[in-house]
Amino acid sequence: MKTFELEYLLEPIAEQFGFYTKRMFGGLAVYLDDKMVLVLMEDKQTKEYRGVSYPYAIWNGLMVPTERSEHESLMADYSSLIPHVVLGKWLFLSLEDNEFEDQSERIVDAIKARDPRFGIQVEDRRKSKKKKTARFIRSLRNLGPKTEEDLISVGYETVQQLLDAGWEEAYCRLVLAYPQRNNLNMLKALMGACLDMDWRHLDARDEAEAQKWVMYFKV
After folding, report:
1. Angstrom distance (rounded) from CA 2 to CA 120
2. pLDDT tens digits, one per residue of 133-145
């Protein structure tokens, strides 16, 4: 079984009540009090996404699950945090950043102190209150009532919310809540819905991208 070089960072919280880890998204998801607070990622090769090359490996470092409303204050307190290029709702601390050691330790200390800005709830999504929508999500291409129910339960209560988030963020939240949803057909259906096309008409680039995403979430 793969081990992660960055696991040493978790020592300050490893003995905390409610701490556990789970292999997910090609990395190691870290939970505390039923919130996902970090994801350790150690892919040192991938530096490109959708034709854009980056000067650092985009999946090598700390993924910081949070809400967009917390970005400004977190980036002010931790200057090396940036929005992730794929999952823009989450922040990212690159292992290649010169301040990685100092800032990663500070982040873990803040998580230990239960700084509420860190982490997202991923449990009991089905219990969340569902609001009526003006337009049904299932009216989008490829999506049915069951997928609509699950998307509502993870926070996408309107079509516009789903389209604003994009398939990347929506799929991530969906699979974190419902791991059984991690499959190529589900991802292609969601991708097609957000792009307003039949999933069977996705081009080769989108098909390859979908396959990579499914592999990222394999345990």
Report:
1. 25
2. 436 888 888 898 9
3-state secondary structure of 139: helix
Q: Which of 121, 144, 175 is the last residue of a domain?
A: 121
Number of domains in the chain: 2
Select from 74, 97, 121 the last residue of a domain: 121
Contact of 59 with 43, CB cutoff 8 Å: yes
Please give the Cα distance from 142 to 149 (Å, whole number). 14
Residue 45 per-residue DSSP state: S
Quick one: tokens of 209?
């991208």
| Secondary structure (3-state) at 85 | coil
Q: What is the pLDDT of residues 158-175, one digit of tens each?
A: 888 888 888 888 898 888
CATH assignment of the domain containing 21? 3.90.1150
What are the CA-CA distances from residue 84 to residues 61, 158, 186 (Å)? 11, 24, 23
- Residue numbers of the domain that contains 190: 125-216
CATH number at residue 156: 1.10.150.20
- Cα separation, 47 vs 191, in Å, equals 22
